[in-house]
TrEMBL record:
GO terms for biological process: DNA transposition. Transmembrane segments: none annotated. It comes from Micromonospora sonchi. It comes from the Bacteria. It holds the Pfam family Y1_Tnp. This is IS200/IS605 family transposase.
Length: 114
């Protein structure tokens, strides 16, 4: 469903949302049906609020800017599922996580750096 042009715009939108939360989008990549984000955010930010905003704002803007996406979600009128995976990387090597995200296939194309 997501082409490279969708993912490129999604990255910009999500970077803006992160900035609103005083967070940093460290790494971004996506595939045709999901996205991978590495976000550094302050402890005062609840991960659920951040994720809900990332998904909500990106859904609204992408659907407005890319009406062609409607053919993929017309039955549910939802761009994102209600689920997400979030984890803490305290102590994990940041370069390993960044490399993992960089290596994800981006609709058969290259990767995008945040």
């Amino acid at each position: 469903m997501f082409a490279d042009r969708h993912l490129t715009r999604m990255q910009a939108i999500m970077r803006d949302v992160c900035a609103d939360f005083e967070a940093e989008l460290v790494e971004f990549n996506g595939e045709n049906n999901h996205a991978h984000l590495l976000v550094n955010f302050p402890p005062k930010v609840a991960v659920t609020r951040l994720v809900n905003s990332l998904k909500g704002v990106s859904s609204r803007r992408l659907r407005q800017e890319f009406p062609d996406l409607t053919r993929h979600y017309y039955r549910t009128n939802k761009l994102w599922s209600g689920s997400y995976l979030a984890g803490s990387i305290d102590g994990a090597p940041l370069n390993v996580l960044k490399q993992h995200i960089e290596q994800q296939n981006r609709s058969g194309q290259g990767t995008a750096r945040a």
